[in-house]
C-alpha cells in the first residue's frame, strides 16, 4: 500500500503498517461505516490522501517516483507555528 514505506531513507520505515491502520481505524466505529460500499471506500481514500499529504517529505529525500510519491515520510507534523 505504501510504495516507499520501507525505504532506508524514510525515517518512519516500518512505522505505518496495514495492521496498525486496521487497529487504529477500529478505534473509531463510525469510520467508513456509513453509506454504500462506494461511499465507504471514498472515505478511506480521502483519509489516506489527506494524511499522506500531511506527512509527505517537504525536503530532503524525494521518492524515485517523484516528490508526491513519498507520503507517510514523517509521523508528525514539523515546523508548525
UniProtKB/TrEMBL annotation:
GO BP terms: namely: cell wall macromolecule catabolic process; chitin catabolic process; defense response to fungus
Lineage: superkingdom: Eukaryota
Q: Which Gene3D superfamilies match?
A: 1.10.530.10
Cross-referenced InterPro entries: Glyco_hydro_19_cat, Lysozyme-like_dom_sf
Q: Name one Pfam family in it.
A: Glyco_hydro_19
Domain Glycoside hydrolase family 19 catalytic intervals = 1-78
An example of a GO molecular function for this protein is:
chitinase activity
Stated name of the protein:
Glycoside hydrolase family 19 catalytic domain-containing protein
Species this chain originates from: Gossypium laxum
